[in-house]
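Here is a complete protein record:
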Amino acid sequence: MSGAPPGWYRDPAGTVDLRWWSGGQWTEHLMPWSAVAPAFWAQSVHAAGNAEERLSAWAVRAVCLYVAVVVSATAVMLVSVPAIVHYVRLTFDNPGASLPAQPVGLQVTSVVEFPVEILVGVVFLMWQYRAATTARILGYPARGSPGLGVGSWFIPVVNLWFPYQALRDLLPPGHGTRPLVLRTWLGFAFTSFAVFVSELTAFASLQVGVAIGIVAILGWILVGTWGYRVVKAIVADHGEAVRRV
């Protein structure tokens, strides 16, 4: 899929015939490679690849840091569940009364977890935009623009599947890591929901809430491992494709 202008496909058999990706299907019209390879396109590929490469290492670190922080915060929350439940009940049962200091679990969440999540989120989305730009110039088919791929994380309902499609489209069709992108996304959605269920269930049954929280921690570790592999695969694919131009 690499080594061709936007929308053009180089035959994997090694021929030089190309066809145009219309956005929904490949056309039957073929054209010699030499007729569609202006120098400015090669320059744009390398410029996009260099911009992505400068953020690639930070994107990998962002994934690892995000998972580490979420796992740590979830573990602290599990340890602090009795205090959190007591604090919340005091809040609702004694409106207007002075309350004790917030439990450690809530303090970690508000002071540490949220700021770090915002920081790593910004870094990751900056990399995603650069990677999507590179993929677009290389001619990888995509359902949306790089900007839409980033913005879809913040659109209600749409953010249930659009971000997955945007990340999947960073890799060419047929790439062996594409199925892992889907597993990572489903794992991310399931684990995020499990953390919420754990916190909610703890008010009714402390033991069940803790058990669900432990499952969530294991899920985050798995999601982090998969996410690391996905980012590394995208970086490797784009780097190799840019070098071949």
Notes: Helices lie at 39-79, 81-93, 104-138, 146-151, 162-168, 178-201, 206-244. The CA atoms of residues 7 and 139 lie 4 Å apart. DSSP finds seven helices and three strands in the chain. The beta strands are 8-10, 17-20, 31-32.
